[in-house]
Amino acid sequence: MQPADIIDAITKASESFISTEVFVALIAAYIGAKATSKATTKAHEYSTKKTVDDELLKTRNTLQLIKIELTSAWDIYISEYGSDLLELSEGDACVDIFPIGENPFPIYDSAPSCLANIDPMISANIIRIYMRVKGLISMINLNNTDCQTIYDAGRNATQELANKFVAEGKELNEELAKKLEEYHDYYAHQEAKKLRMDRTAYSMKLLTIELQSSLAIAMADIDRLTATTNQ
User: Fold this and answer.
1) 135 CB-contact burial (10 Å; exposed 0-12 / middle 13-18 / buried 19+)
2) Three-state SS across the chain?
3) Distance of alpha carbon 210 from its chain centroid, rounded?
4) With contact defined as beta carbons under 8 Å apart, do 59 and 126 qualify?
5) CB 188 within 8 A of CB 93
6) What local confidence, expressed as pLDDT, does residue 6 receive?
7) Mean pLDDT of the chain
């Protein structure tokens, strides 16, 4: 039944016992209730749409920040550590120290809710990347500790040898200093073999190769998702 039909029915039913003033009040109340209902519905629809739009924008911005976080960290890692690691032959130890901060991924650590808004396959790859990167960081930290151990051992051994030369009355000239440096490196590498640092280096190398491939896929996915969301 249309509003006009309802009003006509009310008019006919009310002619015999409702005053004009009461009738007008009833009609006004009906129209007001109808308008209020429409306004409430529209307000709810607008609020719902705004919530969805805000969540999409938040997801888009978070994905872009994740991309920046990953690519920036990866570029630094490759330029300062990873490229040399990839060039190591099997059986070689990585004897470089690569310091890493306490909280290298603040964006990802605050982003799980946004990752739930995208394709599960894509979010799974992103999460896997971070888990693998954190595993790589653990290995780097272990290698850093081992590096410090072999450096200290090499330095102590070299100092003992230098003290022996001095006790024998040998002059610490340039040639002898070079021999001491060579002895330090040799001793440190021997200690690295004892700590099986070559295995750590090999594991880091394999993980670096894996992450290069996974990152390329994730970055392409993020570019596609953010471009679609932005339309």
Assistant:
1) middle
2) CCHHHHHHHHHHHHCCCCCHHHHHHHHHHHHHHHHHHHHHHHHHHHHHHHHHHHHHHHHHHHHHHHHHHHHHHHHHHHHHHHHHHHCCCCCCCCCCCCCCCCCCCHHHHCCHHHHCCCCHHHHHHHHHHHHHHHHHHHHHHHHHHHHHHHHHHHHHHHHHHHHHHHHCCCCCCHHHHHHHHHHHHHHHHHHHHHCCHHHHHHHHHHHHHHHHHHHHHHHHHHHHHHHHHCC
3) 17
4) no
5) no
6) 53
7) 82
pLDDT tens digit string along 196-213?
Answer: 999 999 999 999 999 999
* Rama region for 169: left / alpha / beta (φ>0; ψ in -120 to 50; rest): left
Question: CA-CA distance, 215 to 132, in Å (whole number)?
Answer: 11
Short-list 128, 103, 131, CA closest to 221: 128
What predicted TM-score, i.e. pTM, was given to this entire model?
Answer: 0.73
Per-residue pLDDT reduced to its tens digit, 140-197: 999 999 999 999 999 999 888 888 888 888 777 888 888 888 889 899 999 999 999 9
The first and second tokens of residue 183, run together, are: 């002895």
- Half-sphere exposure in the Cβ direction for 18 (13 Å, CA): 14
**Token pair listed for 31:** 């129209």
Cβ atoms of 30 and 89 within 8 Å: the answer is no
